[in-house]
Amino acid sequence: MTSIDAAPDLVKAQLPESELPRQWYNIVPDLPEPPAPHLHPGTREPLTVEDMLGIFPRGLAEQELSTERWIDIPEPVLDVYRIWRPSPLIRARRLEKEIGTSARLYYKYEGVSPIGSHKTNSSVPQAYFNSIEGVKRLTTETGAGQWGSALAFACAAFGMGCEVWQVAASYEGKPYRRMLMETFGATVHSSPSELTEAGRKMRADFPDTSGSLGMAVSEAIEAAVGYGDAKYSLGSVLNHVVMHQSVIGLEVLKQLTMFGEKQADVVYGCAGGGSNLAGLAFPLLAENLAGRTTTRFVATEPSACPSLTQGRFDYDHGDVAGLTPLLKMYTLGNDFVPDPIHAGGLRYHGMAPLLSHTVHLGLVEAAAVGQVEAFEAGVLFARTEGLVPAPESCHAIAGALADARARTSPEESASIVIGLSGHGQLDLPAYSAFLAGDLTAT
Questions:
Q1: Quick one: 234 and 247 in the same domain?
Q2: Residue 206 and residue 169 share a domain
Q3: How many domains does the chain contain in total?
Q4: Which of 27, 46, 229, 233 could form a disulfide with 136 if both were Cys (CB 3.0 to 4.6 A apart)?
Q5: Do 219 and 151 share a structural domain?
Q6: pTM > 0.70
């Protein structure tokens, strides 16, 4: 740790398009212990590529089980990435001054994407790999609406249809997300719905439910299997999604050097399904594993859905109906229905197997943050930095602020990187509720 400010005037590190990563990073071959395999839900044998072809195209199925360290990003995907990537790494100097910290605070801002979050990093390649195999439409679920919007955008880019099951709490509370999806051409349903067998059963069993991502996953998978021209697309959790998000961390490694930093001392990212944090952290974790750095990584999750801090590390389904493969992950149980908090993208019962594995090995830490604490951090960030963070990202900001406030002397200084996974421009009702004192602490 050092208090030297090697770039005293730089606020925003912006890489040129020529520095856009041309390969995704897969952490699997660099882990000290291999992760547990996914299991077939029927046979409980390790999942094969052929097992996955009912809902995924071969290209993504092969990525899911790959042990290759680097996988080339296809040119058509890079062409779409260039609309917003590389994204900026920004020094939060005004926030530093406001809280009186000796730490150097940086945030990787993914809100510059077409739909305002990191989700397009995976939706674009997922749509591409489906399109080259002749798939006509994709089905998916969405919590906060960011993934649904990202997939709707990507499907439009590659001339495909898109059908989204949006968690009921989000469908009712975030109407502008639905409108954004529909603007890109998607069809959106509130979940659980009457359109699928899984949805009808969940509505019968839980008539007053606000829905959950696990429920919406079941509906989207059932629909994909029932359609002859469709495949299913998942916005987080799975290995190939985590790998697509690695462009975030790969850019950060280069951008930190522009500020004169030899490493990030601490990285904070919000964690719901895990792809956002993993995408930021895993390329930096690779530097730790190679013995070149000593970065700490902290996954911040909502206390209302604390899979990493209170869940069990075990095999579980990724959905309520048990249609997905069995995944070795931290889980609260696939029948867990979290409270309808405003950070809808974090309301998931499980966590990405690869992120879960790194937590289990002690390579990544975890902390739970309450909803009020998260929005306090988000409002402070907005009033100092001028950007309104997504409610999900507020959890990462809260974790970083607690750390930074404890650092007041040059000896305690550190470089702290925050994953700001998206903007909150369509989440203003949540901020309004916070400012009115109408949020619960969970």
A1: no
A2: yes
A3: 2
A4: 229
A5: yes
A6: yes
Omega cis (within 30) before 86: yes
For residue 387, the domain's CATH number is: 3.40.50.1100
What DSSP letter does each residue of 306-375 carry, written as one string? -HHHHSEEEEEESSSSS-SPEEEEEES-TT------S-GGG--SB--HHHHHHHHTTSSEEEEE-HHHHH
- Centroid of chain to Cα 162: 20
Going by C-beta distance under 8 Å and a sequence separation of 6 or more, which residues neighbour residue 107? 89, 90, 92, 385, 397, 417, 418, 419, 420
**Domain limit, last residue, from 208, 239, 270:** 239
Structural domain for 154, as ranges: 54-72+119-239
Q: Check residues 440 and 99 and name the one with the higher pLDDT.
A: 99
Q: What is the pLDDT of residues 285-298, one digit of tens each?
A: 999 999 999 999 99
Q: Are residues 424 and 398 in the same domain?
A: yes
CA dihedral 147, 25, 34, 419 (to 10 degrees): -50
115 within 8 A of 180, measured Cβ to Cβ = yes
Q: Say if residue 255 is in the same domain as residue 370.
A: yes
- Mean pLDDT, all residues of the chain: 94
Instruction: Specify the pLDDT at position 210.
Output: 87
End of a domain among 210, 239, 268? 239
Which helix (H) or strand (E) segment is 276 a member of? helix 275-289
Residue 344's pLDDT band (cuts 50, 70, 90):
low
For residue 215, is it left (φ>0), alpha (ψ between -120 and 50) or beta?
alpha
**Residue range 339-352: average pLDDT?**
79
Q: Which amino acid does the sequence have at 8?
A: P
Q: Contact at 8 Å (CB) between 107 and 259? A: no
202 and 66 inside one domain: yes
**Could you tell me the end-to-end alpha-carbon distance of the chain, in angstroms, rounded to an integer?**
34
Q: Are strands 104-109 and 415-420 parallel, antiparallel or unpaired?
A: parallel
Q: Residue 410: what residue type?
A: P
Task: Quote the crossing angle between the two packed helices 246-258 and 275-289, to the nearest 10°.
Answer: 60
Alpha carbon 276 to its chain's center: 3
CA distances to 26, 92, 130, 264 from 416, rounded to whole Å, are 24, 10, 38, 6
Report in angstroms the alpha-carbon separations of 67 from 8, 240, 359, 391.
Answer: 41, 11, 20, 34
Residue 170 predicted with pLDDT over 90: no
* Cβ partners under 8 Å of residue 412, min gap 6: 1, 102, 103, 406
d(CA 337, CA 349): 8
Instruction: Looking at the structure, tell me whether residues 111 and 226 fall in a common domain.
Output: no
- The neighbour count for residue 36, using CB atoms within 10 Å, is 18
Tell whether 111 and 256 lie within a shared domain.
Answer: yes
